[in-house]
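Re-run requested by the PI after the first attempt was lost when the workstation crashed. Everything re-entered from the original request form. Ligand of interest: magnesium ion.
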Amino acid sequence: MTIKKSSWLNCFMNHESVPVIKPKQEKRFEPYNSQKSVKRISYTDLSSSMLPEELSISLAGSNLYVFTLAELKVITQSFSSSNFLGEGGFGPVHKGFIDDKLRPGLKAQPVAVKLLNIDGGQGHREWLTEVVFLGQLRHPHLVKLIGYCFEDEHRLLVYEYMPRGSLENQLFRRFSVSVPWSTRMKIALGAAKGLAFLHEAKQPVIYRDFKASNILLDSDYTAKLSDFGLAKDGPEGDDTHVSTRVMGTHGYAAPEYLMTGHLTAASDVYSFGVVLLELLTGRKSMDKTRSNREKNLVEWARPLLKVSRKLSKILDPRLEGQYSETGAQKAADLAYECLSHRPKARPTMSMIVDILTPLTEFNDMPVGTFVYTAPSPSPSPSRAPTEYKKSPISSPKNEMHKDDKKSINGHHHHHQHDRKHRRTKSPVISYETYLHSNLSTRTNSPE
Ligand SMILES: Nc1ncnc2c1ncn2[C@@H]1O[C@H](COP(=O)(O)OP(=O)(O)OP(=O)(O)O)[C@@H](O)[C@H]1O
Ligand SMILES: [Mg+2]
């Protein structure tokens, strides 16, 4: 038995007081376990060689369902390509449907099933980290882990299905609809609330992998953080930081973390600043197709954020001027502070939540109708030309690039499944039509 005694005692003695609270209403800074005396089981309490039975006992009470591989095959139609949602460093993700007969108490719903491509111990450790953190943390801005499968060499995760996929897909995918300004602010605020919750928990968590592909979007654009494989318990007692091997994604990691391996909540704040900059500019944090000066988004854009006449030039052209000027300047100032080279000068996530909250409501926007046209190789002659405008971007520079997602410690993630790059002959649709269309046909499904 390799699990530390304290966690075992916790498990057996506190079944009724499990460290999970599902907030009825969102309360920003109330840690999930504030009313419970029991400590959240941390990753270090568990042995990475623990057996499936040991894990399910350790996490008893966390409301996680344990599935068999056979069950997950059924719900994903044998991981069929028509259910393929995308692929990251961990492995492919497929959509599935759970019916209400699968488990008592588990309602019928669509799910996303992530399958670990076996790559030795590191993959299993990340899988276990994800199960341990997301199994115990519950918040409206964290994606819900429904359960897992741990069978022989198979490791899978079952999440609530997020109909609008990742922010990365929404912002940067070819043929994706431009995200309106107020929605961008809503996404930034939601993601900030997720991070604030982690940082302000009784046992704080540093997320470590904050980036556009890890922010998933619900049908109403509620942002939820996913991928806790790199998350770390925050420093305890008098410690100011956690020392780690540098892991993360190029373009998002804080400079001091890259240099020293010292991880603090302020490293997440820096990454948040990068994503805020991506939302403002519509550009990826690293874009090798751009000129040397513009490859690194932060280096290029940060100095321009403070100069109001330059700000309008770097804002996403796909917004077509439809943004609040006051809101844009405030969001730009905030991004500037988050991206400070001095970690102590950065705001905390709770300050960021306070600053962003009113920005979702500014309405000093130029009046105009927004109509989106997805580029189509052979335009239909029946289309009324006055109703549509050509999409401002459809150039190869918006394609995803494998190298952008390389792990910092040198190992390549085998990312972006080829299917992700396949072109779609998208029909012309208005933004309204898109919003009300059947979401299962969203852009990151294979065609
Ligand atoms: N719960 C979910 N609901 C809907 N789609 C999801 C869900 N989880 C993941 N996806 C989709 O699956 C794809 C792969 O996600 P995954 O988290 O494995 O990789 P990634 O975030 O792109 O890369 P990385 O491995 O660097 O985190 C993403 O494009 C995302 O849109
Ligand atoms: Mg991810």
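Saved to the shared folder this time. Residues 1-37, 376-447 have pLDDT under 50 and may be disordered.
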